[in-house]
Amino acid sequence: MSVLIGVGIVTIVTTIYLGRKGWHALHKMVGITPGVLTYQDNNTPLALSSVNWQQLTLNKKHLKVLPDNHLRQLQRIDEKVSSYQSYQKTLQAQNKTPAVTEQHFVLNKMLHTRLPEMLVSHYQLVNINNNELNQQKKAEASDLLQQVLDNIEQRLDRLLEQMATQQLQELRVMKSYINSHDS
Fold first, then answer.
1. What pLDDT digit, counting tens, does each position of 84-129 carry?
2. Which 3 state secondary structure label does DSSP give 148?
3. Mean pLDDT throughout 166-173?
4. Could you count the other beta carbons within 10 Å of the beta carbon of residue 72?
5. Once rounded to an integer, what is the mean pLDDT over residues 135-139?
6. Is 105 in contact with 159 (CB distance < 8 Å)?
7. Closest CA to 59 of 107, 109, 117, 108
8. How far apart are CA 64 and CA 59, in angstroms?
9. Distance between CA atoms of 144 and 167, rounded to whole angstroms?
10. How large is the average pLDDT for residues 4-33?
11. Residues 85, 91, 94, 97: what is their CA dihedral angle, to the nearest 10 degrees?
12. What are phi and psi of 108, to 5 degrees?
């Protein structure tokens, strides 16, 4: 009887050990570390402390009153500005002077001067005493801020599209140059 109990215990321990090893081997094979993967829900509101600004310098106090969709849009804008700035730095590293166009100048002015000013105005308006008239003004201010954010994001998208088109054109020229010397 004790032999059967001993064999049963050894069988259970071996099954658990091999099962665990197999489970870890399966996860390692597909590139997952068990227990490390955390689920990120993109629908949860952004925590202001978790937002890491790469390019924009914005006062966190003014961002506290913004709704989640504005914060997410500001984060997207920041990522696009970061892409644009890295492209500009790449051009400088190649000893090419990046052209400062009117679009670039206006966008830079909007991002670094007008956007912070609008955020300050929005913050001050939201913090004024609550009454029905102010609710209408707050809604209008939120709509105006949304329009400005949309405008900035559209300008950035156009600038990034121009960059991509320019790079594609340079690749075409190089390909044409190389093909012309294949004779």
1. 888 888 877 877 776 777 888 888 888 888 888 888 888 888 777 6
2. helix
3. 88
4. 15
5. 79
6. no
7. 117
8. 9
9. 35
10. 83
11. -120
12. -60, -40
